[in-house]
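[STRUCTURE TOKENS]
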Amino acid sequence: MTTNHGARRGPTLRELTVQALSSVERGYDLLAPKFDATPFRTPERILDDVVRALGPLGPFRAGLDICCGTGAGVRVLGEVCRERVVGVDFSAGMLDVAREAVRSADAKVQWVRADVRALPFAPAFDLAVSFGAFGHFLPKERPGLFAQVHSVLRPGGVFAFPIGAPPRPGSWPYWAMLGFDAAMRVRNAVWWPRFVMYYRTFPLTEVWPELERAGFEVELRPLAGLGHRPDGTPRAALVVARSALRG
């Protein structure tokens, strides 16, 4: 599998403004042709570290990328899954770019347009991943989302996603995230349709028990390649949620 995300010109301020004033689906349809030139695309170094972390957890036959966007996570699945890789997203524009950018000589990649809150799959996957999409779900939607992921995994299947260490209170990333979320709440209070994207609505302290209630056994695996904070703790980790084996 090869992924082509060469140099492209990023979106203009006007294009970003139009996107931000649209619905989530329409906004990503508009942004799709230039998405890979934005900071929102998951960096290669994160993808590479996730591949290394997933290797010992396999082998995997079939993998599903939740909210696949332009297909960055599909590349990860292509390296660790032997038989079948599926990317699912509700933005037709993002899927069009993914189809063009990701090519597989063995034709094991499929693209499906669907709302991940109602996944149209049987329990046929050994691995599900997601990269950078959870800010698009309100906290009240997470239990249903996790239940949907659990429903499409085979017994013993793995749901994995990277998560960054929370910024320290008072640091510039802390204030940047706080400011972005505040601006987004104001925007959604005065403008319709809503554009749901928040950075501070996915705390691991809440997500961990929600995953357990959905039927997962959860552990954290440090992503050592992404470095450590001054106190020695990792900057990022892989959340590994395994579906319990059913006897």
